[in-house]
Each structure stands twice: as C-alpha cells, then as structure tokens.
Specification:
Blueprint (H helix, E strand, L loop, with lengths): L3 H15 L4 E6 L9 H8 L4 E7 L2 E6 L4 E5 L5 E5 L9 E7 L4 E5 L5 E5 L1 H8 L13 H9 L5 H5 L10 H11 L12 H20 L40 E5 L2 E5 L8
Antiparallel strand pairs: 1-6, 2-3, 3-4, 4-8, 5-7, 6-7, 9-10
Helix pairs in contact: 1-7, 4-7, 6-7
Length: 272
C-alpha cells in the first residue's frame, strides 16, 4: 500500500503538472471507484480547474475551482500515471482525467481504492479522524513523547494506526523500527523516554529519505520518471526475509503481528 513517502512524491510531482489545468475529458471504466453516477461525476468535472494538490497522510486531495475536492485513496495496489497516453490500454485504468494540454492523469489498480468527488466540508469531516502528520511542526519531540506515552499494544500496531500518526504503513513502520534499533513487537508501554525520542527522529529520517528517493512503488508517473521506486532497493529490513542484515549480517526475520507483515533484525532490534 502506498504510504506517506509515495503519496508525497506523487504530490510534489503532480503539483507543477496539474495546478491551473482545466479538465477537458473524463473516462470512468469502473463506476464503483467513484461515489456518484458516472454522468453526474463526469459533467461536474468537465471544465473545472485544479487549484492545488494536497496530501493528508496516505490521501491526496485535488482542490477544484468550484470548492469541491477529488479525494484519492490508493489503498492496496493503486498507482498513477501521467502523460499523453498511459503505459497500458485505457481500459486497464479505472478513471482517466484529460486536461487542456492534451495530457491525462491515469488512475490504475483501484480495485479497493477510490476517487470521490466531495465538498470541502466533507473532506474536513473525513480527515478529522487522522492523527497528525509526522512532519507537522507542532509535533515536537515532547509532543510525540506525550502522545505515545498513553498508548497500549505493540509498537508496529501503534505506528500503523492512522489515528496515531497519519501516513505510516507496513513498510515504513519496519524501516523506522530498524533505524531506531527497537523491536517492532515491543509493547509501547515499555518504551522509555530515550527510546521514544530515538523513535521520533527515526520516523522523520526514514520518511524523508524514502520520499527523496521516490518511495518504493515501481510504477513511474511519467515516461521520463526515473526517480519513482528508488527506495525499493534501499529498504533495510522490509521484504528481506532471510537476507543478511546490512549492519550485523544476521538473517532478517519475518513474522506476522495482528495480521500484518513484520520484518526485523533479531540481533540489532532486541528491545528498546
């Protein structure tokens, strides 16, 4: 599932391409992907300009000039492409938006994901349950320590809880725990203040590194995009079962925790 680095990478790439662009065409190949009848959705979007693109956690919000938002959640397997034509046949994409310059934004893999047209009020309502962004200036070390001190359960479960922090999922929770040298299955109540501070800095470090490297998704956004997916080969533990740890050489271990994949080094991550 695309996480904060992937969605922020999309936002930074799409903003200069889409801002000020007028939507001139809409194709919906899968009506279940949108939240209203196809004809209503299509007629409401034709002629609208995109003002800017906002990210909130794992979500993207395309702000339209009539006050509405296009709310995108890629969920599992969703991805985007942009250009004069998609990398696959148009029928392989659930929704396609065409713009005045002749380029199109292709929404693929949205079998579980969605693209909904909603009001500004509805967007606020839907986002209010999300926790703070890891890069929110108000989320200081002290604020983070206070926020995590009252949590129960395991660390990985807490990090992937979107109500705790918005944007972290399976991949980066494991990468963050490895960077902080903390076992992902550690009980949050066992974190001491020093470990919590280390975790705070690892969250920002790993997410920033991943975003700058293009995230771990393998689908390039544009034909000349060579950055997307660059972090895939930089993962220290995620999806590296039985491969040697880059630090100590111990084979990376794989387990499941509350139904989630969990990768860690049993030598480097013994506790807090």
């Amino acid at each position: 599932m695309p996480e904060l680095p992937e969605m922020e990478h999309y936002r930074t790439q799409l903003s200069p391409l889409l801002c000020g662009q007028r939507i001139t065409g809409v194709i919906v190949n899968r009506p279940a992907t949108i939240n209203e009848p196809v004809d209503v959705f299509t007629s409401a979007l034709i002629g609208r300009n995109i003002l800017f693109v906002e990210r909130r956690g794992k979500h993207l919000l395309f702000h339209l000039d009539d006050g509405h938002r296009l709310h995108l959640h890629l969920m599992l397997g969703g991805w985007l492409a942009y250009g004069e034509q998609g990398p696959k046949k148009d029928s392989h994409f659930q929704v396609i938006l065409t713009f005045g310059d002749g380029n199109s934004l292709y929404f693929g893999g949205l079998r579980l994901g969605y693209l909904h047209r909603i009001t500004a009020k509805a967007a606020i309502e839907q986002m209010k349950e999300l926790g703070p962004d890891p890069f929110d200036s108000r989320l200081t070390v002290e604020a983070f320590q206070k926020r995590i001190s009252g949590k129960k359960g395991r660390l990985k479960t807490t990090l992937t809880d979107q109500r705790f922090l918005a944007g972290i999922g399976n991949c980066y929770s494991d990468e963050i725990c490895f960077d902080a040298k903390i076992h992902p299955a550690l009980a949050v109540s066992d974190l001491d203040p020093t470990a919590a501070e280390r975790l705070y800095h690892s969250i920002r470090k790993v997410l920033l590194e991943a975003k700058d490297a293009g995230g771990y998704m393998e689908h390039p956004l544009t034909p000349d995009d060579t950055l997307t997916g660059g972090y895939n080969d930089q993962c220290r533990v995620y999806d590296r079962k039985d491969e040697p740890c880059f630090v100590c050489g111990t084979p990376i271990k794989f387990e499941t925790l509350t139904g989630r994949k969990m990768f860690y080094c049993p030598d480097c991550q013994k506790g807090s």
